[in-house]
Amino acid sequence: MRRPVATVISLLGIAAVTAVSSPYASAAQATDVSVLGIGRATSVRTTSDMKPIPGTDAPNTGLARPGDNIAAICHIPDNNGVQWVLTLNRNGRAGQQYANTTGFIRRDNLTLDSGTLTVNCDFVAETYQTQTAAGIVQADMKPIPGTDAPNTGLARTGDTLRVYCTLTDSNNQPWRLLINTNGHAGGQYANTVGFLPLNALEAQSYSPHCGAT
Q1: How many CB atoms lie within 10 A of CB 137?
Q2: What is the SS3 string spanning the chain?
Q3: Cα separation of 184 and 189, whole Å?
Q4: How far apart, in whole angstroms, are the C-alpha atoms of residue 83 and residue 66?
Q5: Cα 157 from Cα 166, distance rounded (Å)
Q6: Which sign does the torsion angle of CA 138, 143, 6, 77 carry?
Q7: Which of 188, 152, 147, 149 is nearest to 167 (CA)?
Q8: Cys bridge to 182: 96, 153, 159, 203, which one at CB 3.0-4.6 A?
Q9: What whole-number distance in Å separates Cα of residue 180 and Cα of residue 203?
């Protein structure tokens, strides 16, 4: 596994937890417990739902529990102005959830001081790149790379995707963590988060490592 050390505007956190078993098949099972990754380490105050879209009743992508190692990446408001934080839960939970499950968590459920997460998810810099889906009809967005977990959404040709980092699944295939900024009437909200395989993206440029489990 390639292990770059990425400096992303003070957003680096250390991932040092262990992958566990899960009902989902073929997910990434990282073995290096000391790889730097994207995000600022934080924790949740109480058990919190992780959502694929901020402020909706969409099915959870997972749960974050007190003591879990949560990587807080950026924040985004819902339609009511409540701030939600794009996160990776670096902890897995035997029989329930893989490590590095992504989703949005309400900011007020996280132990973040007012000045510790200043980056909005709309921010685009050299390593946070806006890309488009490749010339495909659609590609499934997953809450964990390389699994048969329920889709968080669909990326379609022409959608605008905000890419944050890369993880490799157990078959050594790279996946990109991203937000699909496009909605689809009757089918999907804008700002849906998930992982897409690298070959579904038109741009193949570098993105930082999401961090090992």
Answers
A1: 8
A2: CCCCCCCCCCCEEECCCCCCCCCCCCCCCCCCCCCEEECEEECECCCEEEECCCCCCCCCCEEECCCCCEEEEEEEECCCCCEEEEEEECCCECCCECCCEEEEEEHHHECCCCCCCCCECCCCECCEEEEEECCCCEEEEECCCCCCCCCCEEEECCCEEEEEEEEECCCCCEEEEEEECCCECCCECCCEEEEEEHHHECCCCCCCECCCC
A3: 6
A4: 20
A5: 21
A6: positive
A7: 147
A8: 159
A9: 15
Residue 211's pLDDT band, with cuts at 50, 70 and 90, is confident
The pLDDT assigned to 36 comes to 58
Residue with tokens 């490592």: 209
Identify which of 3-7, 111-115, 123-127 has the greatest average pLDDT: 111-115
Nearest 10 degrees: Cα torsion 141, 192, 47, 12: 80
* Single pTM value for the model: 0.79
Query: Which tens digit of pLDDT belongs to each residue from 129-169?
Result: 677 777 777 899 999 998 888 999 999 888 888 888 899 88
Which residue from 13, 6, 79, 4 is spatially nearest to 213, judged by alpha carbons? 13
The total number of residues shown for the chain amounts to 213
Q: Which two tokens stand for residue 166?
A: 């890369």
